[in-house]
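Quick one: co-fold with NDP.
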Amino acid sequence: MERVMIIGAGGVGRVVFRKCAQHPEIFREILFASRTVSKCDAIVSEVPSPRSKITTAAVDADHVDELAALIDRYRPELVVNVALPYQDLSIMRACLKTGTHYIDTANYEHPDEAHFCYAPQWEMNDEFKKAGLTALLGCGFDPGMTNVYVAYARKHQFDRIDFVDIIDCNAGDHGYPFATNFNPEINIREVSAKGRYFEDGRWIETEPLEQKKIYDFPGGIGSRDIYLLYHEEMESLTKNYPEIRRMRFWMTFGQSYLTHLKVLENVGMTGIKPVLFEGHEIVPLQFLKALLPDPASLGPRTVGKTCIGCRFTGEKDGLPKNYYIYNICDHQEAYKEVGAQAVSYTTGVPAALAAKMLMTGVWKGAGVFNIEEFDPDPFMKEIGPWGLPWEETYPESAEF
Ligand code: NDP
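Sure, here it is.
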């Protein structure tokens, strides 16, 4: 395989494009398509003498036939979907129609319902299998790298995993009182939803941000408040590792972010149902998105680091064991390399490397897969040199 198509010229799309363009020996031809083609052109112009053949195109990926026609014209072997979760199903349909492999970084979500799950994508397994195509879901950082960490820990560190805590810290400062580090609509929908974690075979629901802890992060970040959220990788990981007795997901939020969010919620600005305003229907959250800083513009002004990783408790060779594996990514270093802050960087780099795994045939299979279903070793071997090195410790206590 040598031709890849990237859909979505946002913060993450920029990183996927820049990383693919760094590897012309794998990605010989890149088609970069998005709703607004000028955004693709602007990103492409940042790579002055590309060694891959690059084409840009406008496409509305909500429309299967329009997208399939573009795919048919260009004939990529693989589509990397870094548009929005709303487009997952239409892009998968277009891939099936044209015989193209598929990768994404976020599971399907309906625009009118703040609910996401893998079911509609997993339901396409038979069709992908029959077509001899691979659909690889959730290849960002979380989901993505965190799933690979679980597969890697289970393969090399544990005979049995009992507890997993995924802990996501963004200790970056962009200087705005309120902004989101990736698509504001998706981000706010995720954060304002009820929390949920998995314990002893069932899901336990919490009120939004009800459970809070303080976590002492490595890499000079120090103590931060972390809040329990539901996050999509738990759905596939609890299915693929049924031995896991408890799995939780935690994310850091600063007080200013939470105060702004509360006010916006209280006045109805985070709603996703249309309201009538001066004769026009508007969706409050979409209007809010238009007012907030574009996440892609945060790169030059964000300083600090992210630290995302997984903390495990389980058993190895008959003895109890604790293990923590994580990546630390510096916002300014990411910006220097690809013109994007670390949240886009940590998402785009695993997506580009997953694309390499499929393009080179290191990972292959017919059907719909989550990333933890493939061998983690070749990915772990390369992810450091690709920009996201990992560190590991063996905490004395299972508690934190
Ligand atoms: P952005 O909003 O910055 O970018 C999305 C891009 O997709 C925009 O350029 C937009 O075009 C384009 N787009 C939207 N709708 C369509 C459409 N119908 N057809 C074609 N293009 C379209 O988002 P991000 O880059 O921050 O996020 C990209 C994806 O990555 C999201 O799915 C997000 O959930 C996921 N993500 C995953 C993470 C992980 O760790 N797994 C972490 C962060 C994000 P236009 O500009 O014209 O509107």
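If it helps, The first helix runs from residue 11 to 21.
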